[in-house]
Design goal:
Layout lengths: L2 H15 L3 E7 L5 E8 L19 H8 L4 E3 L10 H10 L4 E8 L2 E9 L6 H33 L9 H10 L6 E8 L2 H8 L1 H18 L4 E4 L4 E7 L3 H17 L4 E8 L6 H23 L7
Antiparallel strand pairs: 1-2, 1-5, 3-4, 4-5, 6-8, 6-9, 7-8
Helix pairs in contact: 1-4, 6-7, 7-8
Length: 305
């Protein structure tokens, strides 16, 4: 199940409980809490955008309670003024006078927590019971959403590098802003075959990952694709020509620092409406010329590359 189903359940709960707000928080990759889903009653200002990457200290006491298989029920924030000052300030700032919050478990691990803000104080036990029942459905929704994300990653990402694959490239082409400028960088990891033959495929994989790491660091925020074993493509929509040049210069510096060499072909177009396939072919042509020059300069037999 997806975002729509989670929001529907939160809306249904919020209205049934006469609450002002219902929500789900999940841990992100940095170990902080993100408000991933939110429903607010009419007239209540949404808070979701303000509760992203929430410091672990803010909800630390709650997680301690959750670890003991308990829930949080507050009928008056003054109850926690001394014991949980960070959360007290957080609730007071939002005008929350009552809440019920429960953890969501999967296979014994806490995967999220969710709750209702400002339900009537005289129905907090009813609120708790309803949230406990609906928690099973929400866990099912989150599990199905995660499965769909994993399937999407498998479909659109290269399994070793995590970069986009050719399917992801097709999506990029369909959705790209045709009026924006475009920078194209075609890269080939030189001597990969030699590394594989002489040092083994594990060493070759490490070389690929170092090369990809260089591209990811330099072109952070833009789209990077793995076109084949040793060929990589970067598409920078909306980039300025001088910015592209500066990043390519930085890439060459970074490659030297990390003992990586890639043959590079690049070009810039003021308008993405230009035939993208032709732009990529031209960048690829430049890359092969750069690669041939590298082999000539170092006296390397290309048949043993």
């Amino acid at each position: 199940m997806s975002l729509c189903n989670n929001l529907f359940l939160l809306e249904h709960l919020g209205k049934a409980l006469n609450a002002e707000q219902t929500y789900i928080f999940e841990k992100n990759a940095q170990g902080c809490d993100d408000n991933t889903y939110e429903w607010t009653a009419p007239g209540i200002i949404p808070q979701k955008e303000y509760f992203q990457n929430l410091s672990p200290e803010v909800c630390a006491n709650w997680y301690q309670i959750f670890s003991e298989d308990e829930f949080v029920l507050i009928s008056d924030p003054e109850e926690i003024r001394e014991s949980d000052p960070l959360q007290y300030e957080n609730l007071k700032r939002q005008g929350i006078h009552s809440l019920v919050v429960l953890p969501l478990y999967h296979r014994g691990d806490i995967i999220a927590f969710y709750g209702a803000d400002n339900p009537p104080r005289d129905s907090l036990k009813y609120t708790l019971n309803m949230l406990q029942v609906m928690g099973y459905f929400l866990v099912s929704c989150i599990k199905r959403r995660n499965l769909m994300r994993e399937l999407m990653d498998m479909s659109y990402k290269d399994p070793m590098t995590g970069l986009g694959n050719r399917f992801a490239l097709s999506v990029f082409v369909d959705e790209m802003d045709k009026e924006a400028s475009l920078g194209v960088i075609y890269a080939d990891i030189t001597s990969l075959k030699c590394v594989n033959d002489c040092k083994g495929h594990m060493a070759g994989d490490h070389l690929i990952l170092r090369a990809c790491g260089c591209l990811i660091e330099v072109f952070d925020g833009y789209d990077i694709f793995r076109m084949g074993g040793d060929e990589l493509l970067v598409l920078c929509s909306g980039i300025a020509a001088d910015d592209l040049e500066e990043r390519i210069a930085k890439l060459h510096t970074l490659m030297k620092e990390r003992s990586v060499n890639m043959a590079i072909g690049s070009l810039w177009s003021a308008n993405s409406a230009t035939d993208l396939e032709a732009l990529v072919r031209e960048a690829e042509k430049q890359m092969y010329e750069n690669k041939a020059e590298y082999y000539r300069k170092h006296g390397i037999d290309r048949r043993r590359r």
